[in-house]
Amino acid sequence: MAYEAQNPTIRFSVPNRPPRKWGKWVSTYKTRALVPVVLGIGLWLWDLLVRWQQYPPFILPGPAQVWRKFLVVATDGTLAHHAEITLFEIALGLLLGLTTACGLGYILGKHRAIERLVSPYIVASQSVPIVALAPLLVIWFGSGLTSKVLICGLITFFPTLISTVVGLRNVDADLRDLMRSLRASRWQMFKLLELPAALPVVFGGLKLSVILSVVGAVVGEFVGADVGLGFLINLARGVLDTPLMFVAVISLVIIAQTLYLLVALFEHMCLRWQD
Fold this sequence. Notes:
Structural class: mainly alpha
CATH superfamily: MetI-like
Order of helices and strands: HHHHHHHHHHH
CATH class: Mainly Alpha
CATH topology: MetI-like fold
Largest sheet: none
Shape: globular
Number of domains: 1
Low-confidence stretches: 1-5
Helix content: over 70%
Mean pLDDT: 82
Strand content: under 5%
CATH architecture: Orthogonal Bundle
């Protein structure tokens, strides 16, 4: 105490300053903050390439020309009409493909004998490219909505099926025995053990399926359709309207990205317990 009274300066201490909010935000979201920067650099390089090589618009239009075409088709309702049809086909195709895949995947995951019987036919059906099956489906079911939904359902079926089977097979055998020792019912076994254990793997298949659903819708519209973004690409190709083709392709990319982000958000909500 006497030493401290004679030397009061030894009590001096520097207070801990809280980190600045801006620096904390940058450190947390720096990867996401780079996305618009990379996008802007890509657009600048695209425009630079067009100006340097002096490409005509029917070969490679510049970003400004694509933007003007987007404003035209967005203003007159053309883009919204075709995008709405494609989204409806994707939604029905996902509903058909995912529900069928999850149901059959649960059965195959629980019964290996059924899996050995059915898996050769499933693999054979997936070994044929969807581009080769699409004309047959259009011939059998017409060029309307049914063939597009079936194509989307087929292309989204296999990833979700495999992820469901693998997810169920990854359930810890000791935990399963523990649930049986506690006399858990089948519903309790599914709700409390099998579903939480399989969801991380199932969501991986779902992310792939929602992206492939966009591909399936476009393939179906390529083969035979009079409306949709795939039809719009075909129409633009026929009249050499490359800016319109870019608008349709970018719209498909935005749809696929949105579906992927929705699945990722749903995955975060369902698997919050893992954190």
